[in-house]
Amino acid sequence: MDNKNKIKILITQDCNPLKGTGISVATYGVAKELAKLDFEVTFATYDVPNKLVKDPGSGVNIVKLNTIQDLTQKIKGSDVVIPVVSFSSVFKAFGTTVSKICENEHKPYMPWVHTSLQNSKFNNIYNIKDYVQETSIFLMAEMFKSPFCKKILAVSEAVRDSVVSLSVPPNKVEVILNGLDLVKIGKELETPIQKTNDVICIQRLHPEKGSPLTIAVFANLKKLIPDFKAIVVGDGEDIDMVQSLIKMFGLTKNITTIPTVINGELIKLIQKSKVFLSTSLTESFGLAIAESMYIGTPVVAPNIEGPKELLENGLNGFVFDSGDTLTPAKIIAGILNNEIVTVEKTKNAVQKIEHDCDITIQSEKLARLIKKTLT
Questions:
Q1: Residue from 327, 330, 286 nearest 309 by CA
Q2: What is the C-alpha to C-alpha distance for residues 342 and 314, in angstroms, rounded to an integer?
Q3: Which residues contact 41 (CB under 8 A, 6 or more apart)?
């Protein structure tokens, strides 16, 4: 299709699309898929290096924003704007700023919400008073109710429920799951599979991810399997506490911490592990959980928001009550002792992701929604 006739999509996000966090991987992945579907896609953010890392062949134009005027010009040149937003524990004004400029320029926009309201409850950790947090949520709700807000995209049913709870009409919210590039993952897998690690945990080391609970699970697991080996992948403000807890519980020979891993290598680490563990206190979707399910690594995760939409206990994975550290240790021990995982359960997990989380299917759904919205 000629560029002049392509629908121009502007995706705005307050974090670097190339740095590999869960949100970045999900949104940038969909951006690349939309570019394949004959849309002209621009990804605009202020959080990229001055010298941009190019991504040849992606079809996505990555733009660094330096001023409000830069943002306004990009909005003016688009047909529809997709601001990536979240109910963050620390309110970020970027998303609501984008919506306000869209209203001034009479541009339709479709906010893409990546976290549920549960995430916003961690505001006190960051010295954000409750009334300030309530104000930020109010501003988000006003953005959703604007006549220029044509649809709201939610990454899970839990996020959809959060948006609807703010008096937003249910028919205005569409679930577009965080998709996985199944073809790309398939190319990154190694054969034959060598399971050299027992347990892997992938998460930002922030309070809402429950890092102390992770170490507590491992402390309980050591009582059942003294010589288990685990890898914790992630970095963040809780890193020093995690390192201290590892020493306190005598786990230095059991746990290896890795701050960052490039995405392709991350897939290989999951594949080489016998179990994937999550102890997160809030998880609106769970990209690493979905990746592990597709790769065939059994998942043990709490029964919260996004994970419980992906996992059916005993059928395609294992769930436990959030905050419980003994039950997941017992489940992991059962898996490592070859007592509770079957080929059928692994197959069920793979099929769940193939059916629900294929990035191609989710991107095509979004493409149809955009075209319908603009007609």
A1: 286
A2: 10
A3: 9, 11, 31, 32, 34, 35, 59, 60, 61
Superfamily, domain 182-356: Glycogen Phosphorylase B; (3.40.50.2000)
Tokens of 141: 């709700």
pTM of the model: 0.91
State pLDDT tens for residues 67-88: 999 999 999 999 999 999 988 7
**Phi-psi category of residue 82: left, alpha or beta, with phi > 0 → left and psi -120 to 50 → alpha:** beta
Split at pLDDT 50, 70, 90, the class of 293 is very high
The hierarchical CATH code for the domain 3-179+358-374 is 3.40.50.2000
Task: State pLDDT tens for residues 142-192.
Answer: 999 999 999 999 999 999 999 999 999 999 999 999 889 999 999 988 888
Tokens at residue 317, please? 């994975």
Which residue is associated with the tokens 């995982």?
Answer: 341
Q: How far apart are CA 191 and CA 175, in angstroms?
A: 35
Query: Contact, 62 vs 41, CB < 8 A?
Result: no
* CA dihedral of residues 278, 280, 285, 287 (deg, nearest 10): -40
pLDDT at 57: 65
